[in-house]
Every structure is written in structure tokens, then in C-alpha cells.
Amino acid sequence: MDPATLAEARRWGIDQLAETSPSAAIDTDCLLAAATGLEPVQLRAWPEASIEPAAWQRFRTTLRRRRDGEPVAYLLGRRGFMDFELAVTPSVLIPRPETEHLVEAALAQPADRVLELGTGSGCIAIALARAWPSARIDAVDRSSDALAVASRNAEALGAVSVRFLAGDWYAPVAGNRFGLIIANPPYIADDEPEPDRDDARFEPRGALRAGATGLEALEFIIAAAPRHLDPGGRIWLEHGYGQGAAVRGRLAEQGFTAIETRRDLAGHERVSGGILERPA
Ligand SMILES: C[S@@+](CC[C@H](N)C(=O)[O-])C[C@H]1O[C@@H](n2cnc3c(N)ncnc32)[C@H](O)[C@@H]1O
């Protein structure tokens, strides 16, 4: 039987998600709000309001997909990052709160030429462009589907200074140098079990898996950084929580100094960076 009110629909949704989602009530509110065109707060303010049949059908369809594990961000087609909202599709990694630490680390030191490697939704490049409107920012990804999403996001958010380039890591910017290189590359080993986030099952494998050790992309990016940085240029990298020592070691091998690692909200080493006084 179809529910007559928002409160009944909400109760049904929470029951459906109770076993599969750790955030059943929040997910239900987001999906019910999207299906009805209301704000989540309005759902609670008007629990006795009736739900239109078309809205109920929309809600039931997305709720069932959520019950089967699809991330809310893909179902809604959007995700908040820093102080803005991005469109996301299954072609791009869903921006993580951990990556906000990466952006915050970089923002402490303005740069006028920036290279982001592996831009995905464009979240990092767009955040930097919004903070530094006069910076020239190149954002590379090998996925043309991801770049299409990133370009749309940049346009919608007025991040006009970002140039999106298709290709393998540094290939599209060969011969160029930057004041800042920033990346959240894939860093999960091929045979590592699925990350504890269920979302990863639905995200592009090429955005998550790096190779046999998980360090392959980070090592490549660090090894080639000295040929792409200006004197005194910086690098900031997101990495897995067990990879801090390895990343610091690779940075030191390439001549980086002032190497530091920052922790995420869970207390895990998550972001490392350094300065290169004398590039190659
Ligand atoms: C972990 S995701 C990061 C996406 C986004 N920057 C973020 O932080 O949410 C890694 C990105 O790197 C891209 N990528 C993987 N290998 C690449 C390569 N060899 N060259 C360029 N981009 C690559 C993937 O397509 C993916 O978009």
C-alpha cells in the first residue's frame, strides 16, 4: 500500500535501509527531499503532508537502489565539498572529506601556477581556483568522462582559470613548470580488500586502485615532480593511512625538504608535502 504522508514514507525508507546503511535516517531524508522537491527540514516540519504518487514512485526507486548499496551522492548526482557543491556521476570518485585536508594544506601557501594530477570531479582544482582567482591551474585526468564532469563543474562554479587536460599524469604538461603540484591519486593496492566504504564498489576502479603495492601512482608523481616544479615549488599529496612513511621517504629521495604529514579527522596520516628548493 502506498503511504499517505511524508512521515509514513520516511518511516518506510528508514526501515528499508536499516540493515544496509549506517546512515539510514540521513539517507532517507536526502532521497525523500530530492523526490518531493522539499528541503530535509521541511519533511520533519510537515510530517502529515501527503506525498504525491509520482514523488512516491521516485522515492521508492532511489531508495531501493540505495538499499542495494548505491552511494547517495550518485543517486542525487551531487556532493558537497569545502563550501560548494559538485555534480558527480559514476565516472568520478565521490569527493571525500579527507581531501578537504589536502586542499587546506595547499591553501596555506598561494601559488600562481598550479598542476593538479588526477582531477576526477575537479574538486581540488576548483577549490583552489575559487581561493586564488588569478592563479593558472592545469588539471589532468586520463578519463575523458571524468574531465567532462569536471569541466561542467568548473563552469557552473565560475572556476574559469582551470584548464582541463586529458592524458597520463605529466604527459599533457610536458616542458611546463609549476609552483604547486597537488594530487589525490589512486593509492589502494590491487589485492587489498574493498575499502570499508561501501561506495567504493560503485566508483571507477581506475580512481582507486594503483597497482600491486598501492604506491605506484604516488611514486611516479613524486619521481617526476622535480622536472615540473619551479625552484621553491611545493608538492601536496593525499595517500593511504599506512603510506605516510613511504611517501615521506620518496619525497626525501627526490630532494624535498620541510617534509610534513597531516592527519585526517580519524587521526590517520593522510596528506604529505614538501618543498623543492633546487628542481632538476
Ligand atoms: C582518487 S581519484 C581523485 C579524484 C579527485 N581529484 C578527488 O580528489 O576526488 C584519482 C583520479 O586519478 C585519475 N587517474 C588515474 N590514473 C591516472 C593517470 N595515469 N593519469 C592521469 N589521471 C589518472 C583517475 O581517473 C581519477 O580521476
TrEMBL record:
<dbReference type="InterPro" id="IPR050320">
    <property type="entry name" value="N5-glutamine_MTase"/>
</dbReference>
<keyword id="KW-0489">Methyltransferase</keyword>
<keyword id="KW-0949">S-adenosyl-L-methionine</keyword>
<keyword id="KW-0808">Transferase</keyword>
<dbReference type="InterPro" id="IPR002052">
    <property type="entry name" value="DNA_methylase_N6_adenine_CS"/>
</dbReference>
<dbReference type="InterPro" id="IPR029063">
    <property type="entry name" value="SAM-dependent_MTases_sf"/>
</dbReference>
<feature type="domain" description="Release factor glutamine methyltransferase N-terminal">
    <location>
        <begin position="8"/>
        <end position="77"/>
    </location>
</feature>
<protein>
    <recommendedName>
        <fullName>Release factor glutamine methyltransferase</fullName>
        <ecNumber>2.1.1.297</ecNumber>
    </recommendedName>
</protein>
<comment type="similarity">
    <text>Belongs to the protein N5-glutamine methyltransferase family. PrmC subfamily.</text>
</comment>
<dbReference type="InterPro" id="IPR004556">
    <property type="entry name" value="HemK-like"/>
</dbReference>
<feature type="binding site">
    <location>
        <position position="184"/>
    </location>
    <ligand>
        <name>S-adenosyl-L-methionine</name>
    </ligand>
</feature>
<feature type="binding site">
    <location>
        <begin position="184"/>
        <end position="187"/>
    </location>
    <ligand>
        <name>substrate</name>
    </ligand>
</feature>
<feature type="binding site">
    <location>
        <position position="169"/>
    </location>
    <ligand>
        <name>S-adenosyl-L-methionine</name>
    </ligand>
</feature>
<dbReference type="InterPro" id="IPR040758">
    <property type="entry name" value="PrmC_N"/>
</dbReference>
<dbReference type="Pfam" id="PF17827">
    <property type="entry name" value="PrmC_N"/>
</dbReference>
<dbReference type="Pfam" id="PF05175">
    <property type="entry name" value="MTS"/>
</dbReference>
<dbReference type="GO" id="GO:0032259">
    <property type="term" value="P:methylation"/>
</dbReference>
<dbReference type="InterPro" id="IPR007848">
    <property type="entry name" value="Small_mtfrase_dom"/>
</dbReference>
<feature type="binding site">
    <location>
        <position position="141"/>
    </location>
    <ligand>
        <name>S-adenosyl-L-methionine</name>
    </ligand>
</feature>
<dbReference type="GO" id="GO:0102559">
    <property type="term" value="F:peptide chain release factor N(5)-glutamine methyltransferase activity"/>
</dbReference>
<feature type="domain" description="Methyltransferase small">
    <location>
        <begin position="100"/>
        <end position="191"/>
    </location>
</feature>
<feature type="binding site">
    <location>
        <begin position="118"/>
        <end position="122"/>
    </location>
    <ligand>
        <name>S-adenosyl-L-methionine</name>
    </ligand>
</feature>
<comment type="function">
    <text>Methylates the class 1 translation termination release factors RF1/PrfA and RF2/PrfB on the glutamine residue of the universally conserved GGQ motif.</text>
</comment>
<dbReference type="InterPro" id="IPR019874">
    <property type="entry name" value="RF_methyltr_PrmC"/>
</dbReference>
